[in-house]
Amino acid sequence: MTSGVVAIETRDLTKRYGSLVAVDQLNLSIGYGEVFGLLGPNGAGKTTTISMLCTIAMPSSGAASVNGFDIARQPDMVRRSIGIVFQDPSLDDRLTAWENLELHGCLYDMRRDDVRKRIGEVLELVGLSDRARSLVRTYSGGMKRRLELARGLMHWPRVLFLDEPTLGLDPQTREHIWQYIEGLVKRGDMTIVLTTHYMEEAERLSQRVAIIDHGRVQVVDTPANLKNSLHGDVITVQCTLPQILGEKLTALTGASNVRADGGLVRLNVIDGERFVPQVVELARQVGIAIDSISIHRPTLNDVFLHYTGRDMRSEDADSMHFARAWIRRTHR
Amino acid sequence: MRELRKIYGIWRRELIRFAREKSRIASSLAAPLLWLVVLGGGLQMVRIPVGGNYQSFLYPGIIGMTILFTSVFSGISVIWDREFGFLKEILVAPVARWSIVLGKAMGGATAALIQALILLPLAPLVGVELSLARLPLVIMLMVVIAIGLTSTGLLIASLMGSMEGFNLIMGFAIQPMFFLSGALFPLSGAPEWLRVISYINPFTYGVDALRWAVFAGFTTLVPVEAELVIVAGFAVAMVLACSYTFGRKK
Predict the structure, then answer these.
(1) Which of B10, B13, B163 is best to mutate for the A interface (most A CBs within 10 A)?
(2) Cα–Cα distance measured from residue B195 to residue B180, given in angstroms and rounded to the nearest whole number
């Protein structure tokens, strides 16, 4: 059934809502066993892309296949192949964890003995075995997230979609979720597609990252390559006579894009830590006093800035998420 | 049948939730008792052409009312599933749309049936002799009526979008459905305009058929075969309409 090594392929996948183009001619190819990150700000089209790949939304034009099945013509086969952890909670909090998973087993037509065995396994995996019989409404936010992860894994999906898996969670809980996901990756053959607007999350979990903005893929590569494409680390030197130091530094091999202004010299170098002694030595030779030196390694944030010309505003998304969660709670 | 298992799962969830809402069960029994005992008792002196006295005439009507409100409410509650995200879990699963609707409709119908069954032991107290032989017929009718009405609730929910319109729907659609169904008075003695509206109301035939099932020898508004066809046809039509609206993708 599954053809070749490509788990997910999209060809000019497009989604329009009226005049708004949410996803604009998206072309992606994701291999089996790969952990692929979709990185972009809120409203970039990540969730819409996932919705189409999960067959919840119909593409306006273009095509895509998941696990070898066409999303428009074989939605049922696609659905059987995938597991999803949605951005927003989707558990029934009036049921226990066990009942939620049991229902999932029914919906995916799993064999009865498999369901019982598998519930034990996935709860064990996310460390919720001792709370299996508690109502989900008594769970904390992090526990609910873990339970959703467990549920997404119940039916042995070939492809797992994680839509902002740690949105709105505290750092400690986020670390836990990351560890569970890393555990999954180590086990092997599952393909994971992760959307996030947290740089560190994309960087830590993904083997390849696509930077998406305005519904378009800006660039696809490994996190390391993306960062290297920005020509190395940025060294910032605070000193007297920055203009003179700048001129001297320009002559050094390995330094590029040297610019001096307002008591600061900035330059790009490939290996910042090894380069700093040369800067210090040069300054000593010409008698310039250095106040401080800092090395800034490029992050995916810089990469994002470079390719989109915009900063990622994660705070906005967070406050929106909390607002939504609050509305849900108070309107219950 | 693969879909059976999925329908069962959805049905079972509805029942687990229903069983956990004890306050809802208790409070929804208060209304029928008030209608039956207080209104029925207070109008004891009213002569009625069928069922002996008014209280016993009222009895099948109140059973119908219980089914109506419980079913419609169960159906509309799918809005909460959407609001709190759970609906996505079902919609993304490899489950046929009609299975979702059937599971939900049967879940709501079962809840309504349980509520209505609690009223059955009251029959002797209001002067109704319900023979055991007629009981299967009564129950089957209840189930079919409840499936149709739960689906009506589901359909309303899928068209409504948010819980804000809930009171509007209750006030302008469901309450009129109840008052214009002949549940509270015999339509044969009602003024022409009222009769005409009631004849358009599908719930009227459900209540009338219930009365026919409860009272041996009751004369129905139209031939009983026609009423049964209307009641069953309404249920099928509503399930189909829901399956269609649930199947739509954005």
Answers:
(1) B13
(2) 8
Q: Which of A217, A300, A222, A205 is nearest to A28 (CA)?
A: A217
The count of C-alpha atoms lying within 13 angstroms of the C-alpha of A117, restricted to the half-sphere facing its C-beta, is 7
What pLDDT, on a 0 to 100 scale, did the predictor assign at position A250?
A: 86
Amino acid at B203: F
Long-range contacts of residues A67-73, Cβ cutoff 8 Å, at least 24 apart: A67/A1, A67/A2, A67/A7, A67/A8, A67/A158, A67/A159, A68/A1, A68/A2, A68/A3, A68/A4
- Contact: B17, A95; criterion CB under 8 Å: yes
Beta bridge partners of A296: A234
B contacts of A155 (beta carbons < 8 Å): none
Residue of chain A whose alpha carbon sits nearest to that of B1: A109
Chain A residue closest to B8 (CA)?
A106
ipTM score here?
0.88
pLDDT at B68: 96
CA distances to A86, A113, A118, A135, B244 from A105, in Å: 18, 10, 9, 18, 25
A107 to B2: CB separation less than 8 angstroms, yes or no: no
Chain B: give the shortest CA distance to residue A43, in Å: 17
Q: What is the DSSP string of A109-122?
A: T--HHHHHHHHHHH
Please tell me the distance in Å from A104's CA to the nearest CA on chain B: 8
Q: Taking CB atoms and an 8 Å limit, are A90 and B89 in contact across chains?
A: yes
How many CB atoms within 10 Å of residue B83?
16
d(CA B45, CA B161): 46
Q: Measured between CB atoms, which of A79, A95, A104 is closest to B16? A: A95
Per-residue confidence band for B50, with pLDDT thresholds at 50, 70 and 90: low
Please name the residue of chain B whose CA is at the shortest distance from the CA of residue A60: B250
Residue of A nearest to B249 (CA): A57
Give tens-digit pLDDT for A62-108.
999 999 999 999 999 999 999 999 988 899 999 999 999 999 999 99
pLDDT < 50 stretches in chain A: 1-3, 314-319, 329-332
Q: Quote the minimal CA–CA distance from B66 to chain A in Å.
A: 24
Q: Taking CB atoms and an 8 Å limit, are A80 and B94 in contact across chains? A: yes
pLDDT attached to residue B218: 86
Q: Which residue carries 């979702």 as its tokens?
A: B100
